[in-house]
């Protein structure tokens, strides 16, 4: 990974902001890098005829310079300025599919710098069909070299938000054209010879090419060991989220089934079961080995609905769904794939189970991307690349969110002295380090999360013990000296969404005094049990989270308490966030 320098206050430009578009186009023509939408995925563009500008794309992407960029145009008349030979095959492809999701590789002219083509004597030309994109390209007035606008090694971006997540601070501006229609990158076709060779499958399928050209195109296929890649991009493991991805291949010809329909035929019931059960069985298998596993599922609505109908609460607590539409809809799956991988990754799942398709059309492109996300081999991209930006406090421009909701968790202890201050402190620290957050349902809605504490038997305003403060600051590198004890009462409960007590008797006490809180109150132990996170002692008995207030003990005991609470809260963190209706923003 190349070193990335954060240099810009990246501007997010809305589609209807004429002045913003003009400003971004001017910046691009003067050598800056700008993210822009296309119908396939977002691109990261620079003036294709300016080698210095092109090198800035590689810096922003953290991508090695040995991978050629494709050149984007807004008018077919530009082709003759960039290309020295248009073969009959190339001409036929241009006539049939431009503008559209295709990149045609042709012999280049000298004006195209070798920085763009990574030293090759060919250049990929693409004319997108996205109206805002073409308007912007025309405003730039130069051919625009652009790879997909993701960080090297992470899934291609299909929304402006994805681009901001990866590129904020590294490029001049990002133009927001809404979610990309296709969702997978263009079909790359080498048309320098007589027979077109498909280097990367996309929405323009081999059947469409064969039909238009009345020939049989070739498919370069997957790279064999030791083989020199025809398209240098083929050697990288692209599109990878931070966690493992496992493909669950769907049965063929499943059609569309509404699981709620009352008159399902036996055949339809069987099909439904055949679609959904492999996901759920696999999830159960994973949980058997690792009861704390968080499992992402990228599948059709039938799978989610069947999981809900199965009514297994513990299994459900571990499942994070990203539904793309009807199970059999490969177009919808393609449209949502990269977004889904990013989304589930942010929900901190350990593994993603993703629907796989059999078929010869768009299925080929979809499976090509999904297999790469699932692939373990040929990983030339440092796998840390994606995680690096996922950790730490990212500064996200707040205007990305259309609105913001707040949600909070309340920790209850006996006197809200030491334990209250410590839990609130640890959880607040986790929120700060893992944030920002957005709504699970809509990432345009930000989530402001916080933690509070209160006690059942409190002398209001008491502060934590000196040893508690010392232990906390040594382990957490923060302070709780300002914490003031507060009584647990109705106004406090009303202000919080989830209530967690340190031990079981406090939960019992709360619910017997305030029956209306039932369902919102858990002890740490019962909360873990509700998620199936049951810890067994050596004798096989079920262990519960047992933490006592170390009041009056030595510093060592306090430190032990802080460490124990930290460990429990780190395990519970993703579950609590999900119950608050939120997920990590990036
Ligand atoms: O849909 C798309 O194609 C998007 C949007 C932004 O236009 N762009 C895109 O660019 O996906 P990129 O750089 O992520 O992928 C371009 C692919 C790479 O695999 C690269 O190796 C290949 O095209 N390529 C580019 N020029 C080539 C050439 N002259 N010969 C062979 N392969 C080439
Ligand atoms: Mg790419």
Helix and strand layout, with pairings?
Layout: E1 11-14, H1 18-29, E2 34-36, E3 43-47, H2 51-61, E4 70-72, H3 79-82, E5 83-85, H4 88-97, E6 102-108, H5 114-117, E7 122-126, H6 131-140, E8 144-146, H7 160-167, E9 173-176, E10 187-190, E11 197-200, H8 206-213, E12 218-219, E13 244-249, H9 266-289, E14 295-299, H10 301-310, H11 313-318, E15 319-323, H12 330-346, E16 351-356, H13 362-374, H14 384-390, E17 403-413, H15 418-434, E18 437-439, E19 445-455, H16 466-476, H17 490-494, E20 498-501, H18 504-513, E21 521-523, H19 524-530, E22 535-536, E23 542-543, H20 555-579, E24 582-584
Parallel strand pairs: 1-9, 2-9, 4-7, 6-10, 11-12, 13-16, 14-15, 14-16, 17-19, 17-20, 20-21
Antiparallel strand pairs: 2-3, 3-8, 4-8, 5-6, 6-7, 10-11, 18-19, 18-24, 22-23
Bound molecules: threonylcarbamoyladenylate (TXA) and magnesium ion.
């Amino acid at each position: 990974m190349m070193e990335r320098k954060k240099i810009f206050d990246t501007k997010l430009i809305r589609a209807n902001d004429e002045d913003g578009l003009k400003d971004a186009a001017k910046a691009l023509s003067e050598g800056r890098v700008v993210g822009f939408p296309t119908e396939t995925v977002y691109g990261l563009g620079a003036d294709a005829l300016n080698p210095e500008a092109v090198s800035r794309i590689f810096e922003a992407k953290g991508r090695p310079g040995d991978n050629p960029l494709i050149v984007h145009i807004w008018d077919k008349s530009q082709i003759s300025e960039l290309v020295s030979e248009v073969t009959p095959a190339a001409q036929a492809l241009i006539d049939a599919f431009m503008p559209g999701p295709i990149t045609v590789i042709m012999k280049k002219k000298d004006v195209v710098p070798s920085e763009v083509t990574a030293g090759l004597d060919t250049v990929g030309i693409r004319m997108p069909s996205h109206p805002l994109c073409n308007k912007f390209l025309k405003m730039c007035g130069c051919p625009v070299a652009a790879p997909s606008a993701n960080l090297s090694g992470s899934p291609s971006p299909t929304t402006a938000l994805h681009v901001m997540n990866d590129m904020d601070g590294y490029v001049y501006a990002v133009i927001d054209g809404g979610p990309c229609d296709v969702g997978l990158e263009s079909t790359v076709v080498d048309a320098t010879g007589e027979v077109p060779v498909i280097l990367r499958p996309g929405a323009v399928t081999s059947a469409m090419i064969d039909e238009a050209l009345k020939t049989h195109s070739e498919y370069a296929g997957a790279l064999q060991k030791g083989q020199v890649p025809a398209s240098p991009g083929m050697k990288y493991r692209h599109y990878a989220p931070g966690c493992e991805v496992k493909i669950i291949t769907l049965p063929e010809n499943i059609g569309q089934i509404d699981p709620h329909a009352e008159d399902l035929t036996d055949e339809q019931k069987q099909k439904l079961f055949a679609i959904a059960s492999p996901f759920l069985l696999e999830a159960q298998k994973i949980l058997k080995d690792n009861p704390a596993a968080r499992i992402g599922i990228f599948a059709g609505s039938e799978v989610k609905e069947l999981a809900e109908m199965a009514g297994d609460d513990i299994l459900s607590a571990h499942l994070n769904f990203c539904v793309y539409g009807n199970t059999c809809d490969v177009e919808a799956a393609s449209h949502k794939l990269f977004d889904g991988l990013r989304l589930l990754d942010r929900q901190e799942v350990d593994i993603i189970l993703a629907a796989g398709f059999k078929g010869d059309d768009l299925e080929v492109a979809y499976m090509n991307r999904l297999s790469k996300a699932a692939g373990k081999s040929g990983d030339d991209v440092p796998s840390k690349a994606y995680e690096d930006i996922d950790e730490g406090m990212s500064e996200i421009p707040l205007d990305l969110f259309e609105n913001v909701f707040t949600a909070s968790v309340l920790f209850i202890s006996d006197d809200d002295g030491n334990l209250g201050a410590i839990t609130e402190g640890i959880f607040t620290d986790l929120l700060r380090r893992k944030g920002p957050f957005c709504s699970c349902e809509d990432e345009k809605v930000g989530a402001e999360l916080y933690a509070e504490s209160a006690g059942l038997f409190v002398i209001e305003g008491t502060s934590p013990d000196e040893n508690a403060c010392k232990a906390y600051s040594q382990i957490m590198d923060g302070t709780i000296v300002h914490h003031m004890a507060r009584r647990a009462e109705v106004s406090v409960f009303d202000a919080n969404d989830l209530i967690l007590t340190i031990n079981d008797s406090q939960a019992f006490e709360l619910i017997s005094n305030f029956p209306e809180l039932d369902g919102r109150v858990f002890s740490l132990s019962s909360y873990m049990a509700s998620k199936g996170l049951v810890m067994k002692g050596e004798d096989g008995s079920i262990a519960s989270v047992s933490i006592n207030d170390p009041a009056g003990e030595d510093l060592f005991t306090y430190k032990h308490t802080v460490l124990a609470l930290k460990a429990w809260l780190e395990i519970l963190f993703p579950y609590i966030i999900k119950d608050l209706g939120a997920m990590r923003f990036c």
